[in-house]
Amino acid sequence: MFKFIHAADIHLDSPLKGLEQYDGAPVDEIRNAARRALSNLVDLAIEQGVAFVLIAGDLYDGDWRDYNTGLFFVEQVRRLREADIPLYLISGNHDAANRMTHTLKLPENVTFFSAKKPETAFISDLDVAIHGQSFATAAVYDDLSEAYPNANSGQFNIGMLHTCAAGREGHDRYAPCSIEELKSKGYDYWALGHVHQREVLSEQPFIAFSGNIQGRHIRETDAKGCLLVTVNDDRTLQTEFKPLDVLRWDRAKINLEACRGTDDVLQQIASELASRHGNADGRPLAMRVELTGATLANRQLHAKKHHWTNEIRSLAIDVGKGDLWIEKVRLLTTDPASKSVATQAPDDAMSEVVALFRQIKENSGRAAELGFQLDDLIRKLPAELKDLVRQQDEDWLSEAIAAAEPLLISRLMGTEVEE
Amino acid sequence: MKILQLHLKAFGPFTETSLDLSGGEQGLHIVYGPNEAGKSSSLRAITDLLYGFLPRTPDNFLHPYPKLRIGGELQHSDGKILEMIRRKANKKSLFDAVDSKPLADTALEHFLGDVDRELFMMMFGIDHERLRQGGQEIVQGGGRIGELLFSAGAGITQLQSAQNLLHEETDLLLKSSGRSGEILDDIKDYKKSKDAVKAVLVTTDTWKTHDERFQSAQRQCDSLDERIRSTQGERNRLIRIRDATSAIGQWKKAKIDLADVADTPLLPTEFEQNSHDLLLALRTAEQQMADAKESIESLNQELTGLILPEKLLTEADATESIRDKLGEHRKAMADRPKLEIQFEEAENDAREILKELGRAPDLAKIEELRIPNDKTIRIQDLGNQQKGLFERVSASQRDFKRYRDTISELEQETEAYQNLSDDEELQHVLRTHQSEGDCEEQLRSLQIEIEDLQATANIELSQLGLWSGDLQTLEELSVPSQATVERFSDDMQEKRAEIKSVQTRVTEREDEKSDLDRQLAALELGQAVPSEEELTQARTLRDQGWQLILASWENKSELGENAENFLQHFPTCTSLLEAYRQSVDDVDKIGDQLRRDAQKVATKTRIQSEISQCERNLEKLDKELKLLRKESSKIEDLWTELWASLSITPLPPAEMRDWLRNQQQLIEQSRNLRSRRIHENTLVSRIDEMVGSLKEAIRKVDVDCHLDECSLNELLHLATDKIAVTTKAQNRREQLNDNLTKARTDLADAQARFEDAERDLADWKNNWANEMESLGLSDDAIPSQANSVMRDIGRLFQKFQESANFRARLEGIDRDARDFAAKVKELVGKTLPELAEKSPEDAVPLLSERLKEARSAQERHDSLKRQLEEQQHKLKTANSAFAEAQTALGEMCRLAACESPDQLAQAAVQSRRRSELENTVQSLETSISGQSGGMDFNTFLQEVESETLEIDSIPPRIDQLDNQIKEYNLERDKVIGQLKEEKLELAKIDGSSKASELTLQCESIESRLAERIQELAKLRLASAVLHAAIEEYRENNQGPVLARASEIFQRITLNRFSGLQADFDERGAPVLTGVRASSEEKVTVAGMSDGTCDQLYLALRLASLENWLRHHESLPFIIDDVLLNFDDARAIASLQVLAELSKQTQVIFFTHHQHLVDLAQKNLSQDDLFLTPIQSR
């Protein structure tokens, strides 16, 4: 019996995205999240006394160039070496793009698989054969698994592969392969990397993405970590997911239909935050709050979005006791009455406003005709930030329109004065 | 739609109350009731009935939420009627007329059309407050038609503020100028953070470069170490050989030389000196013996020829004594005749005095004339008393007479002073006034002082500067405190000091830098440094010299041409040895210079790095200086501001401090002036008082005195004079009395003194008569007679004594002359009888002459005897020295194996040579062993002899190796420097997470920016839409609405305005104006009164409503007391317009003003008007 760890997609020092800092935000708690997650991985390996550790690609982030990152990795590998734990690495698309991969001198307990052809490493005292091939370039579109050798009979065979498998949304289609192809090799375990969402593709043989070890933005929610695999003497195995992340991401969609005023809104949000914070295994939580539903509070919320965002953040400070970060508040609520207003003919002043908004929603070009433009802003933005203005992006624009309408109507009607 | 019934079943203050609003086709319904009748509750009830209760309604104070009920009956224009009851519930709040069956939420839609709650409240509700707001909006909006129509069309009352708020919020994010805004701040922050990342980021290439450099430096260092080690080994070996070679040559030669003198006996070191000394001693002794013998012979001859007079020599002492006394004898003989004459004169004088005294000139009887001393004194004393006694008698007689005359005069005068007047009161008044000083003078000087102070103050006030005004205003001026000025002064000074300090530091740095520049230049200009070739040449020359020295030493041959050539290189040297030493010095000097040159390079590098450090410092200081200057000017601005309220443009604080002090002084002066003026007034009244009291007192003393025009001072003088006169008379009277008493006492005294003197004179006459008798004088002899007699007797006895003295001296001289002659005669007889016939005066000198000759012969004889003894002793000593030397020399010859003492010197030289050679061999062997580097002597000897390198090429080779080692070391130092540098660089790359942390910061800013950009998009969209909506609405509705509004406006302004007209403002925007009926003049909204604006708003609202109603199902128009501020005529006109409106839609008018109800009743057709009283129950 022995154990090993399957991890992938460390993306060391890749920054957490979308976390706007604000007073009271748990800044210290999220610092160096990727590093601390890797450190957790090493801790786990040592604590569990695993026989070896596999990392199935994307150790680094492709365009991250700080050599210090590499040195930190070496330091962690040294800790493994001191515990006599070998580390098997293949490089993924990100690693291939990163010069550090080729420059950094790794301690001798690391086996780094070639990018030219699949290689096999043997661990003779355990009768284990590990097959793997690295990415040679950032974009590999060939099915690498084809060239992998068949299983060595009598040994426990593991395949390491950085792949999109049959294709996954949100991930580049690198080194695609089919589960059948993988199964055909006769291996006992396929340690896959590249897809950040943990997924078991097959139980027999065991084929899985371990997912990344630390979520990096709001689209990478839920617990992140590695698979701890126990191989029995009869070569059967059990896998167990072990969370390693130091910060978790969460989206709270909160329907405010039942709320008749902003007090109700805050109350409902508070209880939602509390319950989600309780489910984060004691980790700091970066949460996006998405408010939906037709509510009487709609115009008040839109009239002072900044104010309510801050209110929600201070709720988070109360509820989260310093480790709940409100990543963003999205107002997707609607007016309960908007339905009836939308259909009327524009011969009173207010319905003129409503009618114009309807036109913009139906035809985004109309906004420009009405004099809406952000060209001055775009000119001011540095090149890498110009993407922040997405006038051509329907979603982006309609979110702005959806927010502008209740804002304007509430201002004209003076609803916000009641607040 | 029309409300037929409103049932306030359980709502607000109402319970089961109904309002019947069904009258007329639509009808103008005036709902009226007193205050507290529940008017506002019933207003809310209409909205709540139509749109449901708000979550928090205030109308539950009587009925709790679940019990709240409003019922109603609505009639659609198509005739449909809906009866219903509204409960308070989130959903399903609508029930049928009996409150049992819920109705669909949509049941009302048909009646309400598309109008939601807010729109209903805005468009179909108007109260007094919103009318006012509407009026104000018109003014604020400048009457722009689009906005006016838009506002009125929707019942919006805050279009302006909504627009403003949108603009403000947009500007906050990004100003339309594009120059500021939170978004730009974010962009700036973002760029800054990006730069920070770049600064701490270490790329792979950076690391690789440092690592490669480190490795390469390490390799270079190792290889250099190896080269240094091997070169040093070779160098040391050659040094050993070089150092040993010459010694070995010398050693070999010394060995050969030693063989020649091996048999020579070794003699002690001092042997040669000793043999030489002994030979010298032998010769000296021989010479001394011959000299002594010759001297003895000549001395004996001279002694034999010498003769001595024995008798004369025996009496030598006596002869000398006689010769000494001869002088004394001769002098006495010469003095004798003078003494005889003096003796005779003295005796004659004595006899003469006796004759003068009238006695016989016989000196034998003079003793009876001697007067004792005490008697003489007594007579003189008495003589002296006589004159005093006579004077006392006559003086006392004179005094007596004078005193008697004085008394009679005094008694006459006293009679005159008997009656004097009393001035005590006047004195008292005068004292009191005088104690107050000179009041008039005080007053005068006070007045002058006041004038002076006033003038000075005026001048100083005009000189104060910076400010103008009179003294009093100045006093009231509120100026900054001293402390404030001090604080500014300190601040400015501090800033100035800081600036100065920074400037000083700049100067220092610049000095330092120019100094360094100079050093650098000096270094580069320094004297030429000798080259390696020069060193090699000098060494060759030195070696050449060495060869010559060796040659000269080994061969003793002529040095010849080579030496001459060598010497030519050293013109100052005369010998070969000197020249060689010079050549060695030259080599050393050049070598030293070369070494110094290496230091110069190092120095230059150091200076250059110091220069760049200086420049960096200078830059930093420059920045600091700019900042300080800015701060300084800020303080100066604050300073100016401080004085602004006094309309003073201040000078620097130090000068303003002076100004403040001057101002303070002026204030002080002003106060001073005031106090003086008060004092002046006091003085004037006091003077008046004093004049009164003085006049009264003077009149008491002198009733007739004329006082009316007198000043205080004149009065004071007058009083003083009066008192002085009186006082003087009193004093005189007292004095007279005193004098009289004294004169009487004196008279009595004078009489007593006269009687005393008479008595003393009688006593004296008696005594005097007795004494004169003893001197042979009469009773009445005067004292000077007595004195003359006594003097003559004294002189007599003096002369007599003199004559006795002269006689004694003559007898002494004669006795001495006799003794001298006897002694001379005796001596001549003993010694030289041939002189017996000569007088003592002649014989004595001859005797003395002969004695002198005899003494000289005696001395010569003694000297010869002593010389003879000396020579005999010398001869004896020389004999023994000679023998001693002979014996010692014999012994030395034996030691040196010589036949005669002459050979001894040669033997010593030989011995010394042997010993020297032995030492040389020994020391060379030691020296060679020292060079062998621990090798056995013979092995080392073999190694040296087998060395293939020419002995002459060894030293250059060693130098070559030395240089090589030096170069290697220099190179190694450089490499080690690189090694350290790279190691440091690599150590800096420590796996730090700084870059990733800073990147997180960038992400944070990016997120914030994204959020703000979306916000900006939202705001701009809202603005764009609003703007478009206003325009759109105006285009569609301007014509009909304005036409109707114009009509209404004309009516409710009672034709003051003939209507409304569109016009353009100065920017070309369409604006609304009112046309004045009287003058056709167009009045902008700014020119209308508040009331007119309210009426304009009402006109626009009503016209818009009518316009809207043309296309829509009607809804009741709810009015809450809007006519409060209208005068009766306008209120009637407005009510009439409303009555017209009620033809199109139901109008419900709430009021609690009975008077409006009355107006309506009086002026409206009863067909249109329906009154509904309201009273809560």
Structure description:
The complex is a heterodimer of chains A (419) and B (1177). In chain A, α2 (33-48) packs parallel to α3 and α11 runs antiparallel to α14 (394-413). A 6-stranded mixed beta sheet of chain A has the order 4-3-2-1-11-12, with helices on one face. Chain A has a 6-stranded mixed beta sheet with strand order 5-6-7-8-10-9. Chain A is α/β, with parallel strands linked by helices. Chain A contains 14 helices and 15 strands. Chain A has helices spanning 27-30, 33-48, 67-82, 93-97, 100-103, 179-184, 262-278, 298-303, 305-320, 338-342, 349-362, 365-369, 375-380, 394-413; strands at 2-7, 52-56, 87-90, 110-112, 119-123, 128-132, 156-162, 189-193, 199-202, 206-209, 225-231, 237-243, 248-255, 285-294, 324-334. Chain A is 33% helix and 22% strand. Chain B is α/β, with parallel strands linked by helices and 1177 residues long. Helices cover 72% and strands 6% of the residues of chain B. Chain B is built from 30 helices and 13 strands. Chain B is flat and about 220 Å long. The relative contact order of chain B is 0.15. At the A-B interface, α3, α11, α13 and α14 of A face α3, α5, α6, α7 and α8 of B.
